[in-house]
Each structure stands twice: as C-alpha cells, then as structure tokens.
Design goal:
about 90 residues, 2 helices, about 40% strand, globular
Length: about 90
Amino acid sequence: MKIVHVNIVLVGRVQGVGFRETTKYVADQSGIKGFVRNEPDGTVYIEAEGEQWELDSFIDWCNEGPDRAKVETWSVNAGELKDFKNFVILKK
C-alpha cells in the first residue's frame, strides 16, 4: 500500500458552486485525505493523499466537479507526502 500526494489546481466556474463541500464529501467516501480551498484568483486548490487507484478516481471526479461547476482547465502535480489525517475545507 503506497500512499501518493498530489496537488490539483482547477480553473473555470469552480467557486460559488459548492465545489469545496462536494469535494470533501467525495474525498471522505473515497478514503482521500488532504484539503481543498478557494484561491483569491478564482481557482480551487486541492492537496490530496491516497493510494494511486483512489487518487485516479478522485482526480477524474475533480475534472467534472459538482453539477453547477464547469472545469475549463486543470493541473495535477506530484507533491511531498504530508500524512494528512482527514480531508478538510480550508477557508481563505
């Protein structure tokens, strides 16, 4: 069981559409640990940790987001493992 860390940036209509709350729900259901937050530039930033297969599914969901969201572009980069204990929504 190898845990992987990724940093995800989502661009588009991703704020004000319930993205953070829905992301937390999906992460909790998927066993993903980390955080999600809105950025001042209008993007959503996520740091997530889990097994690769869990993250692959989570990233696929992030590319779509909740119903009212419209993800235009996104990036995923490997990051340093931080050993998160749960998944939380961070305020600005």
